[in-house]
Amino acid sequence: QVKENGRNHFRFFSPEMNQRASHILEMESALRNALHNNEFQLYYQPQIDLYSGELIGAEALIRWQHPEMGQIQPSQFIPFAEESGIIIPIGEWVLNEACIQAKKWQTQLSIPVAVNLSALQFRQENIVEIITKALKNANLEGRWLELELTESVVVQNLDAAIIYLKQLKQLGISLAMDDFGTGYSSLGYLKQFPFNTLKIDRSFIQNVTTEPNDALIAIAIISMAHSLRLNVVAEGVETESQLNFLHRQNCDLIQGYYYSKPLPADEFDAFIANVKKQ
Ligand code: C2E
Ligand code: CA
Ligand code: CA
Ligand code: CA
């Protein structure tokens, strides 16, 4: 179905766009239902100190347990959630849930929980209040929460971002720059933000032992991050040779299947208890 203006010049809709628009609407109502029916679940992936082997933190990653379709991965629905705006209530659910879990872990494990913030969430004027509320609701101190933001989230919203990040930092929350290397990748502007941690994107780690250029990029990121006093996390570490490379380069933390996939909280507890016994 093609819609044209009076002079036959412009196409406002192509059939594909129409389908896409209706798909977004369908997904939005499915996501709204999912939120209402409690179908979302958080999985947690451990972050490990490369030298002591100690558990340092956990990243919360959302899953959708669909009653008919089974488990749906975030790549299948987060983009639609962002486009439709429903990421905002979903994101609030994630924050609350992660803070409640972090409170449980505070005494047993003493680790902070990291939460991913989407661009749309971070553009809300009251984002700092929303995060403060989630902490209060869980009776959690800010130091047990970490927020992960990508470069584009911060750069899209530069002036406000600096203000929000400084306020969040004041609450004791730590801040991680996510997926580093995939966006602007300029450490110059990073200096103006109060980040504690930089996460090297999995796409570099994947080929770090086979692609000399990726190895050089990883080395450069680690050394520049350290000169800015940032902690470095390598994402997506799957093999021992990647681990050894990162160890030689003085990377700080690793997160990846080599150690563990993301796990539901109870399996995370069991996994950590097992590791400690060994
Ligand atoms: P991300 O923040 O970069 O998260 C890391 C992703 O890498 C996760 O995928 C994780 O399961 C995966 N991963 C970790 N280690 C390995 C590894 O060794 N090998 C491989 N192949 N993959 C590994 P996941 O859970 O599917 O999440 C995908 C993306 O969805 C996340 O990327 C993040 O951008 C987004 N996301 C997940 N949960 C949330 C959430 O609660 N809120 C928002 N806004 N975004 C989320
Ligand atoms: Ca992340
Ligand atoms: Ca990441
Ligand atoms: Ca990534």
UniProtKB/TrEMBL annotation:
Annotated EAL domain residues: 24-276
Superkingdom field: Bacteria
Protein name (Swiss-Prot/TrEMBL): EAL domain-containing protein
Lineage, highest ranks first: Bacteria, Pseudomonadati, Pseudomonadota, Betaproteobacteria, Neisseriales
